[in-house]
Write a structure and sequence with these properties.
The complex is a heterodimer of chains A (about 375) and B (about 400). Chain A has 13 helices and 14 strands. By secondary structure, chain A is an alpha/beta fold. The chains are: A alpha/beta (about 375), B mainly alpha (about 400). Chains A and B meet through α1, β2, α4 and α5 of A and α3, α5, α12, α14 and α16 of B.
Chain lengths: ~375, ~400
């Protein structure tokens, strides 16, 4: 009796499977057969796709690669135990270019790079640590100071007190580079116009620099700190603040908005991700991870497998200043009169200077 | 024959639960597919066919990801002695075994405490602390240039010690002041996570030299846990054998020793055990110590043998999956091992499924949750499966 029931169940399952056998979904053929044969892949970290920030931008890049005709695939980790396994899975699926997102995947990507010299690896937001960079590895870093220098320049220009400020989440390179650029932009403005500009919160020299940072127990989500720090800066006459501390910055935007003063966003175009603060966000210093991912895939496809730690710059579009949101009513009410066409073209000129190398960010770390 | 029948009877409920959960999962795959949903208004039949195709692709990917692709075996056989192709062919199955290793350790750990009537939800934290102990031992002992076997013994010992110490806290709190172990173990999971984060950014001994991020040094520079398969590229390591041995030891301990009997008696009926003169409080503490030590060894093998770097993502929810495994496995070591292999296969095969179909691996956690639900409600599950057939049988006989 019991056995027959189980058999019946198995028979039904077998029928179901047979009914749909022989049909596998195949992706539509592309015009460029070479690209269709070239598989580009991303290994995401825990909490990857759907984070509305870092990882989603990388995914955006992969989707654009697919639109260009590449075959793409991705894996998603649910814990450290998946890192090496997922990268190996992508290798076994014949991925030719594998982009790894997230610093936690360090040892897995290093081991895979060494073991598979015929596959191109890239690692977003990290660089090869020890010794010479292997020929099949690209470290993808961001020269974000070039973008934040533009922001610092514009901030110095719209400031009435000529005091601007910044602070970070934690004192490491990925953060302080924003702050370096911010200071450089202000100093460049001062040098160009002869007006003295004071920057609170960061002194780049002597290296490694010193400044204001969030308490280490909760550097990236401490909105209260963001708020009180903004108020403190305002009491020292600052009227534009650039927080580099993730969600901590939202406290700053709130305080600056309430005081009808200004701020500059970080990482992505925050007038889009946090539209309630468009009335205080002049613009944002952006890491264009999606563009860099796409560029890396194209580079690998072209035969260049790496051998370098690459850097996103203004010139290659890896970093940039987000758009002036003049279409937004709140932004217009605050910045419509301040951000003049003359200022916009000055910022564009500065960007052109940085791109062609005639202006170097590190030359403006001091006001002299 | 009777033994076979007995075995069938024991695995019947879990097997049915897994099947039903997979069927429900199939429906979810169909209903969450936008293309299938979009087709329903104009072409309902076509939508169903497309949906079934999607499910077929998903589940065949799951199987191939977990047990291997016949085509790859064919290629390997055709090429003869090519180790790379053999590695490719065998990797899915060895990765399934590897994925089941931490599940076995923590599954056994929580099983021991469940048998003693202690609902230890802290497998996650004990696993993490064990990983921390293993990391420290690997860096200190391996860094001092000790021979590999001694270093590995040290890794296991410190992992067990750290895990046991972490489990001792809720154990003694429950025994002495009656604090609910459900609350204390779950809270200690968070503390373990944050403690390890703190050490990773503040303790030079373990933090990676050239980084400011919360990651440890690369552990394979200090010690490598030997792999157990002849093909070098397959990374199934000693931890798998240790897990199986531990299952045997746990089984022997619980069912063949006086202390084990005391623990089980405490689990079955605490007042009765106390009345019979068994130390109920000491049973709780001992169960937690054993539980924590096993989970800790699992963490040590995971970080030193598999991942080779400590981060706060080291546990990846293993403590919670382990609770399911202990329950599905009927709180028996053999059941835990078998269930770990099934869940390991799901976890490992899920990666290929996600890659081929874009279905996130979260679906498998959903299926796992369903399995637990069905196990927890056996009468519901049996009715779900039995009744349609029963009626048909009756009609046939009538």
């Amino acid at each position: 009796m019991q056995k027959s029931r189980i058999l019946a169940l198995l028979a039904i399952l077998a029928l179901l499977v047979a009914a749909c056998g022989g049909s596998t979904a195949s992706p539509s053929a592309s015009a460029d057969a070479g690209k269709a044969d070239y598989k580009a892949c991303i290994a995401f970290d825990v909490g990857g796709i759907g984070d509305k920030s870092f990882n989603d931008s990388a995914y955006e890049g992969l989707k654009n690669a697919e639109k260009e005709g590449f075959t793409v695939a991705y894996s998603e980790a649910k814990g450290a135990t998946d890192y090496a396994k997922n990268i190996q899975l992508l290798i076994d699926q014949d991925c030719k270019s594998i982009i790894v997102v997230g610093f936690s995947q360090g040892e897995a990507v290093v081991a895979a790079t060494k073991a598979n010299p015929e596959i191109a690896f890239a690692w977003v937001d990290s660089t090869w640590g020890d010794g010479e960079v292997p020929a099949n590895f690209t470290g993808l870093d961001f020269q974000i100071d070039e973008a934040s220098m533009l922001a610092g320049y514009a901030a110095a220009a719209i400031s009435t007190s000529k005091v601007i400020a910044t602070y970070g989440g934690q004192p490491f390179g990925g953060v302080t580079r924003f702050m370096d650029g911010w200071v450089a932009g202000a100093n460049y403005y001062a040098k160009k116009t002869g007006t003295k500009v004071t920057v609170l919160g960061w002194t780049p020299l002597p290296r490694p620099g010193s400044g204001t940072f969030a308490p280490s127990d909760n550097p990236w989500g401490n909105k209260e700190f963001g708020k009180t720090t903004a108020q403190q800066f305002m009491s020292q006459k600052a009227d534009v603040v650039h927080p580099v501390a993730g969600q901590t910055g939202e406290g700053t935007y709130e305080a600056m908005l309430a005081a009808k003063k200004f701020s500059v966003g970080v990482d992505s175009d925050q007038c889009l991700t946090l539209p309630q603060y468009c009335g205080t966000l002049m613009n944002s210093a952006e890491k264009k991870i999606g563009a860099v991912v796409l560029a890396t895939i194209q580079k690998n496809y072209g035969g260049d497998m790496g051998g370098e730690n690459l850097t996103g710059t203004l010139a290659n579009g890896g970093v940039g200043l987000s758009a002036w949101h003049s279409e937004d009513a709140a932004w217009n009410a605050t910045f419509g009169a301040l951000i003049t066409d003359a200022l916009k073209s000055e910022v564009d000129a500065l960007a052109a200077g940085i791109k062609d190398g005639s202006i170097k960010v590190s030359d403006y770390f001091t006001s002299k | 024959m009777t033994r076979l029948r007995k075995l069938l009877a024991t695995i019947r409920l879990p097997a049915i639960s897994v099947l039903v959960a997979l069927l429900v999962g199939a429906i979810v795959i169909m209903l969450s597919d936008l293309e299938v949903l979009g087709k329903i208004p104009q072409d309902p039949l076509g939508a169903i066919v497309l949906g079934v195709q999607r499910v077929y692709l998903a589940y065949t990917s799951l199987l191939m990801g977990a047990f291997g692709d016949p085509a790859k075996f064919g290629k390997a056989i055709a090429a003869g002695g090519d180790a790379v192709l053999w590695a490719k062919a065998f990797r899915p199955i060895t990765e399934t075994l590897l994925a089941s290793v931490p599940l076995m350790f923590v599954g056994l750990a929580v099983m021991v405490s469940f048998r003693t009537g202690v609902f230890n939800i802290g497998g996650e934290g004990q696993f993490m602390m064990g990983a921390l102990g293993g990391t420290i031992a690997a860096i200190v002992l391996g860094g001092a240039g000790l021979p590999t076997p001694i270093t590995i013994l040290g890794v296991v010992a410190l992992g067990a010690l750290f895990g046991a110490a972490w489990a001792f806290i809720p154990g003694i709190l429950k025994a002495r002041v009656g604090a609910s172990e459900v609350i204390t173990t779950i809270m200690l999971n968070y503390i373990a996570n944050l403690f390890i984060f703190f050490l990773l950014v503040n303790w030079e001994l373990i933090q990676r030299e050239d980084r400011t991020q919360p990651i440890s040094k690369a552990l394979d520079k200090f010690v490598v846990i030997p792999t157990i398969l002849p093909i070098e590229a397959l990374r199934l390591h000693l931890g798998f054998i240790v897990a199986l041995l531990l299952a045997v030891v746990v089984s022997w301990f619980l069912w063949r020793t006086a202390k084990g009997f005391e623990l089980r008696a405490a689990g079955l009926n605490l007042p009765a055990a106390r009345y019979a003169g068994m130390g109920a409080a000491s049973s709780v503490v001992i169960a937690m110590l054993i539980s924590g030590a096993i989970a800790g060894i699992g963490g040590a093998f995971e970080v030193v043998g598999t991942v080779k770097q400590l981060t706060t993502a080291i546990s990846g929810g293993v403590g919670f999956t382990a609770i399911a495994i202990a329950l599905v496995g009927g709180t028996r070591p053999s059941g835990v091992v078998a269930t770990s292999l099934v869940f390991g296969a799901l976890r490992n095969g899920g990666a290929l499924m996600g890659l081929n179909t874009g279905i996130p691996i979260d679906l498998l956690f959903f299926i796992q949750a369903l399995v637990i639900m069905f196990i927890a409600a056996p009468s519901l599950t049996q009715r779900l499966i039995r009744s349609p057939f029963k009626r048909r049988v009756k009609e046939a006989t009538a």
